Amino acid sequence: MSASSDLERSDQISNALADLRKRISQAAERVERDPADVTLVAVSKVHGVDAISGALAAGQRVFGENRIQEAQEKWPTLKAAYPDATLHLIGPLQTNKVRDAVELFDVIETVDRSKLAAKLAEEMQRQGKALPCFVQVNTGEEPQKAGVLPKDAEAFITECRETHRLDVKGLMCIPPQDEEPALHFAFLREIAARNKVHCLSMGMSGDFEIAIELGATHVRVGTAIFGERPKA
Ligand SMILES: *Cc1c(COP(=O)(O)O)cnc(C)c1O
Predict the structure, then answer these.
(1) Does the predicted model carry a pTM greater than 0.90?
(2) Which burial class, exposed, middle or buried, applies to 4 when counting CB atoms under 10 A from its CB (0-12, 13-18, 19+)?
(3) Would the pLDDT of 2 be above 70?
(4) Which end of the chain is more exposed for a tag (fewer CB within 10 A), N or C?
């Protein structure tokens, strides 16, 4: 890529972020929430270090990645340059990758089974860290999707807190593609309230505004910042 088109891309990302921050504020204000209570998690999966650097230069500090190995290739140098950047794991985590995940990530959004919770607790203790965690809930009960089933959420949240001593800060969901996301967002908020969980990671490029209106504290937005991802 030429220097001038690099610059253009950087401008596009910076403009997209400014536009997004405005839309986040407006959505929050519609329901009389403080926009500062909504964290934009910029989902940089598939996008390269140059694009991410553009977002960092524009002031964005919170990012999401869904694959450990890809994050390991991109983030150590980026974090060295921007020590206040924080990285959320938003994709499925295998227990054999827990050590790497705890080393690199700052927040784990996809805790969804006992074995993983136990391994995370053990590894955090070993590394002297207490990373904030989110429990992923499979609100649509889709067989192919990760996340604890809604009926098991309460027992699992309690187990994470009391048995594994994990800092369960929030719940996360990815609604089914072909259903009204608002129903899932409202459902997640209800489960969170019942369990005294304060953060809600919900809403992506297509539906973050309605998610904010329904209480999202974290929106995970990729396409609306970086453009379409190349198809795998
Ligand atoms: C890719 C991804 C996103 C971002 O989706 P966009 O539609 O590009 O905003 C959000 N959450 C998760 C879990 C993802 O994997």
Answers:
(1) yes
(2) exposed
(3) no
(4) C
**From the CA of 226, how far away is ligand 1's center (Å)?**
11
Distance CA 93, CA 54 (A): 28
d(CA 34, CA 229): 31
Ligand 1 midpoint to CA 31 (Å)? 24
Instruction: For residue 229, name the pLDDT band (cuts at 50, 70, 90).
Output: confident
Percent of the chain predicted with pLDDT > 90? 93
Backbone angles phi, psi at 40, to 5 degrees: -85, 115
Closest approach atom of ligand 1 to CA 43: 4
Q: Give the other-Cβ count within 10 Å of 41's Cβ.
A: 24
| Ligand 1 in reach of 66 Cβ (< 6 A) | yes
Residue 156 to residues 77, 148, 184, Cα–Cα distance (Å) = 36, 8, 19
Residues 133-169 have pLDDT tens digits of 999 999 999 999 999 999 999 999 999 999 999 999 9
Phi, psi for 109 (deg, rounded to 5): -95, 0
Burial of 58-93, coded b for 16+ CB within 10 Å and e otherwise, reads bebebbbbbebeebeebbeebbeebeebbbbbbbbb
The response to whether residue 225 sits with its C-beta less than 6 Å from ligand 1 reads no
